[in-house]
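Task card 7
Instruction: Convert sequence to structure tokens.
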Amino acid sequence: MKYDIHQLINISRNKLFSGLFKEDVKSISRLLKHENFPKGTYVIKQEDQERKVYCILKGNVEVLSNFDVYAEIRLGILTEGDFFGEMSFFTRNYTKTAHIKALTDLEVLSLDSTAFDIIIKVYPSIMQNITRTAVLRLQDSNRRFVDKAAVEQEILNQRIRQRNEKLKAANSILSRQNRETKKDILLARNIQKKFLPEKEINFPGIRIRTYYRPCTELGGDICGIKRINNHQIVVYGGDVSGHGTSAALITIYLKQIIETYTLEKREDGSEQLREPGEVLTLLNTRFIEDINEGNPELYFTVFYSIIDTELREIEYSSAGIHCPPLIISGNGAEELFKQSDFPIGHVEGHVYNSYKTGMATRNKLLFISDGVIEVYDGKECFGMNRLKKLLRSTLIAEGKINLEKKIGRASCRERV
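Output:
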């Protein structure tokens, strides 16, 4: 279907296509199907087999979930510029997570499964928009759930005679909510795993190994490896404050942003590798605008580096890292730097610097999260000094080491 300029503008305003160029929107518009639904119609039922993504042009819908046989609970309202239906593409067996019902007469544009698979491959920023929207919806849902629980608790306190019935009903709702939460966690974990690098990657002149084990079902750690050419590799890792589904989804969004900022497109169409400090500066601005909105309790610590095997050097920048990478040589293990810059999200407009250091043949670079040195044995944390001593006595002597076996698993946090 062809759209005029005003219709294309309306399409571009939808959150799903935020940030796309006009020509990209025009190309996508050829895959869109115009549909109308009368007020009161179920656009999506949880038992539906068909998979579609819908973009709202006019009207409102409500998101509903069945917490018991007799009642539908409203989870939220979506309006013009919103989209829905995307989660069925990431759940096991493509199941729907909620009903969608038209609150008014509804005008939408839809993408079938084939069209949706095409556009998320061609336009990676659409996946960023989906992840960002999922984070914001989850945070809003959590706030509303807490408010609702507080109100219900007050009602229970006032109606002591009905206490047993109320508790039974509340337990039923909480049990169902717990099952729904576990499904969301499983979904988020499956998505998070898809964004982790392979356990072992070999490039000319360098071998990289990664290991990730969250202490809980979901963690806020992130790591990434991106080959630029035959002698330059980008390696980064970091940690979002907090744990659980929100932190995991934010890490996925940040990974997309970091890899988008790695290369700068020039006017002639060529690409230039950005310095690490520039990448973190851009990331800090984007994080404050999109994620924490000035909330100091939501921040991101990250180490970002470019390893050049031809020059035998590493160029890096860091933000809030108090467990710096270690350079391991025949003489021992030493921190790459002693002090890191501000965490991402703490200082608006901050400019991060880049640093360089040489790497000798057969040197190793070890980057771990703070979960490794914070393992607690009941008396004290393991600590950086004990880790360096362990590396000198075992890794340098034997050429390999199992950190989890040597340090232990007690009282751990995430590890990379």
